[in-house]
Design a protein that fits this description.
heterodimer, A: mainly alpha, MetI-like fold, 17 helices, globular, disordered N terminus, B: alpha+beta, D-Maltodextrin-Binding Protein, domain 2, 2 domains, 3-stranded antiparallel sheet, 18 helices, transmembrane helix (chain A), MetI-like_sf (chain A), membrane (chain A)
Chain lengths: 340, 430
């Protein structure tokens, strides 16, 4: 929406138009009035609106000030500092000096950066479709009012509230060479699979943990969206002979499309910034030879500790920021296009 | 003022995705003397000791406060995980505690940033030097810097535990475990062969200390370049590759941590694992079947010298209560306190003459004492193989390149060359 459309959409209210119509100052009379009869009500309103008008420019800012303070202190200031540091050779305990684009140039030639970028991108591509679709299917299953359904809703939501560290450790135990899953596979004659030793299986395992942990969270979002889908639409489609799959495609999906976009946007940002799951599954080293390192893991590794290269880690952080913003804008643009 | 939806969306995006943070910097050290009235409030930080030694440290603090009226010691303990990160944040934020439990490789960057007190320059602190073993005092000296930056605290050297049953099942003599790396490699290959690769001998890839114990020269004499890609280093990595290929190393060795390897040893999935006397309690409690078959031998070494881990206590050079901080750092690490701490846990004092105590020499028939006596004996010719300047980032470089060699993506020589090159680059940047 552009600002030029605003006056048409919200024409000035005469009651609050103030001096231009009603005259200026408290108790003022309209310039065209000429009547000597007191008109207390409009006068009082004018006085009141005058005060309101004077308060208008500043009061919204007072309301948002606490939020601005928090965002400025904990997001904007660190962001600007990081941006600045990305152009310096700063280390954890040393100020460093301005080095221009040297950190960014070094990134271009850093194999580990490209590995991390590849892994973060793969993670997003692998996780997002599953997190958009599976929770929707789960929500469709548990939205029915059947006896005991509350238990299933709670059960599916449990991983969301569990600590990611606990979840990661449980999965490591299950995926271990001698863990539950490999024991089962061996029992049925398939043999052991190196979930925790192969670089690609490690990444897939971490993705599975992210999806498993995120299912319940997005399921709740979808449940809220599904509650707003008019039942009549389903009934009408059923009367027209549409089966369950057709009703899902033609009624449910369009009705929750906005929610799907939201889930897609949120999950893609979180997936691109993944740290904990890969750290726990692939180990602090990021898998064999660091081949499963993601961008945020790389930031932590390069910039962490007493000898961390804060300037270089900041440059990677800026790249993560740019990519994430681009992702969000892409999703918003996609959403607008669909709205049009 | 109207704000467009786009602006709101952009602001939301910014608030959502800003993942970034910043740190401050250090400054030069203050070398004024620590003589003067011992009083004031100081903070003492330990490294993951509160869980098991709360009463001990509370007692030490209480005794110190009693001996020095007017002093208050606030004790904080940080978890082992992320200790250097927390130190980094404290140092950058100007909130580094007055007295800090530290290791030589962690004190190096703090000393370079002027945040660690040079004990040699401080008359009071330097006067305590004679109480410590000379080698231990020197362990907190940094190549390229003059001075000593921490009081030596406890020393540790762990034995190698092995599973007698697994060795016996593989046709080896359980009473004659490997002592050198070559023996270890030969026996490891035999175990893998006899068990069809089902039992691995080791669960960890070689670390910088392994290269040292194998005989590789870790750094040049000037201390300004790493050299572990020499013939010895390459030879050792080539043997490790052979072990990996023949499944004598655990299949998950490339992603293992000491904790996961410890668990595998408990479950008898691997035959040998380094540890300390404290582990015996764990075996007894958590893995009785392993405990029945546990064998204890010296650390594997081809140089005749085992690795010694050194812990120290640093004084923050910016402390406002320098006399109290120096006095407390010395108090915690003095011969009396070190000896009493050593009797509570399987560590060894770094103070002169303490290792002559009967506690470290007299057998009483228990396994714990046997381990303690063996370790104390080996400490006399032990070496701290961890180079003081070997940072966390360098450890990562070494581990990643070792993994490439084991996977066959690079030859051992190329992998070590690359690791050395990366470490030297980081060394120059530090």
């Amino acid at each position: 929406m552009t600002s030029s459309t605003a006056p048409r959409a919200f024409p000035p209210d005469p009651a609050v138009a103030g001096p231009t119509r009603q005259g200026s100052g408290p108790g003022g009379r309209g310039p065209r009035g000429g009547s000597t009869t007191p008109t207390p009500t409009p006068t009082a309103r004018t006085g009141e609106t005058g005060r309101i008008r004077r308060q208008l420019p500043s009061s919204p800012w007072l309301f948002v000030a606490p939020g601005l303070l928090v965002v400025g202190t904990f997001s904007l200031y660190p962001f600007l500092t990081t941006l600045y540091h990305s152009f310096t050779s700063k280390q954890a305990l040393r100020p460093g000096s301005y080095v221009g684009l040297a950190n960014y140039r070094e990134l271009l030639h850093d194999d580990m950066f490209w590995i991390a970028l590849r892994n973060s991108t793969l993670y997003m591509v692998g996780v997002v479709p599953a997190l958009v679709l599976l929770p929707l299917l789960l929500a469709l299953l548990v939205e029915r009012q059947l006896p005991g359904m509350t238990f299933f809703r709670s059960a599916f939501y449990t991983p969301v509230v569990a600590s990611v560290v606990v979840v990661g450790l449980i999965w490591v135990w299950m995926l271990d060479d001698r863990g539950l899953i490999n024991s089962l596979l061996e029992t049925v004659g398939i043999g052991k699979i190196g979930f925790l030793s192969d670089q690609w299986l490690l990444l897939l395992s971490a993705m599975a943990v992210t999806v498993w942990k995120g299912l319940g969270y997005y399921m709740v979002i979808y449940l809220a969206a599904l509650a707003n889908v008019p039942r009549e639409l389903h009934e009408a489609a059923a009367v027209d002979g549409a089966g369950a799959i057709r009703r899902f495609v033609t009624v449910t999906v369009p009705a929750v499309r906005t929610t799907m976009v939201l889930v897609g946007a949120l999950s893609s940002v979180f997936a691109f910034k993944v740290f904990s799951e890969v750290y726990l599954i692939a180990g602090p080293g990021g898998g064999p030879a660091g081949e499963d390192t993601t961008l945020v893991m790389l930031i932590q590794r390069v910039g962490g500790g007493l000898t961390g290269r804060v300037g270089y880690a900041s440059a990677i952080s800026v790249v993560v920021f740019v990519v994430t913003v681009a992702l969000m804008l892409l999703v918003l643009r996609f959403d607008r296009k669909e709205d049009a | 003022m109207r704000i467009s939806r786009r602006a709101v969306a952009a602001a939301t995006v910014l608030a959502t995705v800003l993942p970034l943070s910043a740190c401050g910097g250090g400054s030069d050290s203050d070398s004024s003397d620590a003589s003067g009235d011992i009083k004031g409030k100081i903070t003492f930080q330990t490294w993951n000791l509160q869980a098991n030694f709360k009463d001990y440290f509370n007692g030490v603090i209480k005794d110190f406060e009693k001996e020095h009226p007017g002093t208050t010691v606030k004790w904080v303990d940080r978890p082992a995980e992320g200790y250097s990160e927390s130190l980094s944040a404290d140092a950058a934020g100007g909130t580094l505690p007055d007295v800090v439990n530290i290791a030589p490789d962690l004190v190096a960057p703090l000393a370079k940033a002027g945040l660690a007190l040079d004990l040699d320059k401080d008359t009071t602190a330097a006067s305590y030097r004679k109480e410590y073993l000379d080698g231990a005092w020197k362990s907190h000296q940094i190549p390229g810097l003059e001075g000593t930056y921490g009081f030596p605290w406890y020393l540790n050297t762990g034995p190698m535990f092995y599973n007698k049953r697994l060795l016996k099942d593989a046709g080896l003599d359980p009473e004659n475990p490997p002592k050198t790396y070559d023996e270890l490699f030969d026996q490891g290959l035999k175990i893998a062969e006899q068990t069809g690769g089902k039992v691995a001998t080791l669960g960890q890839v070689p670390t910088i200390e392994d290269f040292g114990r194998y005989g590789a020269e870790l750094m040049n004499k000037e201390g300004d370049a790493f050299t572990f890609n020499d013939a010895k280093g390459v030879a050792m990595l080539a043997r490790y590759k052979e072990l990996f290929d023949k499944k004598a190393l655990d299949p998950q060795v490339l992603t293992a941590t000491p904790e996961t390897t410890g668990t595998k040893f408990l479950t008898e999935a691997i035959a040998m694992n380094p540890g300390n006397a404290h582990d015996l309690e764990t075996f007894k409690k958590d893995a009785p079947s392993l405990y029945k078959n546990i064998g204890i031998t010296d650390q594997i070494t081809s140089t005749g010298k085992v690795n010694m881990y050194v812990m120290g206590v640093m004084v923050n050079s910016k402390t406002k209560e320098k006399p109290a901080a120096v006095a407390f750092a010395h108090y915690v690490t003095d011969p009396t306190r070190q000896m009493s701490f050593a009797k509570k846990v399987a560590i060894f004092p770094s103070t002169a003459g303490s290792l002559e105590d009967p506690y470290f020499n007299k057998e009483d028939g228990t396994d714990e004492t046997r381990v303690r006596i063996a370790a104390a004996k080996s400490l006399k010719k032990a070496v701290n193989y961890t180079p003081v300047l070997f940072s966390e980032q360098m450890k990562t470089e070494l581990r990643n390149n070792v993994a490439k060699a084991l996977q066959g993506k690079q030859s051992p020589q190329a992998a070590l060359d690359q690791a050395v090159e990366a470490c030297n680059k980081l060394l120059k940047q530090s």
